[in-house]
Amino acid sequence: MSVxxxxxxxxxxxxxxxxxxxxxxxxxxxxxxxxxxxxxxMKTTLAALALTLAAAPAAFAQEMTQTTTLDRGGQxxxxxTFTGTVxxxxxFGPNMNDVSAGEVTFMPGAxxxxxxxxxxxxxxxxxxxxxxxxxxQEKQIMRTGDVVFAPAGVNHxxxxxxxxxxxxxxxxxxxxxxxxxxxxxxxxxxxxx
Length: 193
Description:
The chain is an alpha+beta fold.
């Protein structure tokens, strides 16, 4: 760009804008006043930027949604991953940072198989009393209102006691498309000890 065509560069607000010299230069005639007057150019640029930034949130806005209990459905837990009567209802899928949740109800004597989670898992007990156990540790009691955290890779199981049912929300994140790795079923001997 030649010196005769450049009146200057505006450097304000971290924006650099070059403007040409108005007058008889054919390339600048249609824009004479705008190209000649840096203050007008800055005002126009800032006004356009402000309008763009103000409109951006509306362009990306999403609406809140509600899913009822009836909409969520559920199913009896698989015999491959649970012992006893277990009802598993999805709460939400992995739409937010690969985090999902399910509401799981264990009838007395029911429990999950041994399993691990690649990121970890939270259990939020919403009703009843149950047990959970980390491999190599003593079985622990969980009650309504308790929150149990299983760190990534820790082999564990959870379920109802032998005489009470329990319902909890299981919240976990997926890694490489998987939120759980299932192991062997918990034996009656392991469960009863």
